[in-house]
Amino acid sequence: DTAVSQTPKYLVTQMGNDKSIKCEQNLGHDTMYWYKQDSKKFLKIMFSYNNKELIINETVPNRFSPKSPDKAHLNLHINSLELGDSAVYFCASSPDLGTQYFGPGTRLLVL
Amino acid sequence: AQSVSQHNHHVILSEAASLELGCNYSYGGTVNLFWYVQYPGQHLQLLLKYFSGDPLVKGIKGFEAEFIKSKFSFNLRKPSVQWSDTAEYFCAVKSTYKYIFGTGTRLKVLA
Fold first, then answer.
1. Is some CB atom of chain B closer than 8 A to the CB atom of A86?
2. Which residue in A70, A73, B60, B68 has a CA-CA distance of 20 to 30 Å to B7?
3. Is the pLDDT of residue A20 over 70?
């Protein structure tokens, strides 16, 4: 029944490591997003894909690379993790003009 | 550049008090407007949305919001808050494929 799912839910890792977060939606939506929510709860869009094509790429370090193997999946790979990458990462999906449906979030802690 | 401003960062109310959270945006074109709520430890969920038509929209849990085009505002209201309304509230504006979220308002309702 889960509409938007993310794995893992928690991720604790060392600086310099490479990690991936996966996102899947079963709503049939065309558009998917990655957001970063920092410790002050500020929510900032990072990327958006529409039908597997990148349509929004905000000012994000190129250590972050999204990949969309199909329109139901949008994964986020992070290279050379830094302390400042610690945050909650939310995946979301939406029909083109509709409401966003958020995943449960992935809490990333970089030590 | 497009932006969304939420004027109240922290609001503390007693149960049964009335609530109004401000949201202003800067964008001259057609927009869709949303309020999302994030309960402690959870992901964002839609409270209500405005696309067109009646500028007074009603959402879940007794919330409503009024779109005032001339003021570029979309304020959230609830006549009588409950302890369970304690959460973070985000206003969001959508144009084309891009969502912009406000910085959020943290509401604490005292029992």
1. no
2. B60
3. yes
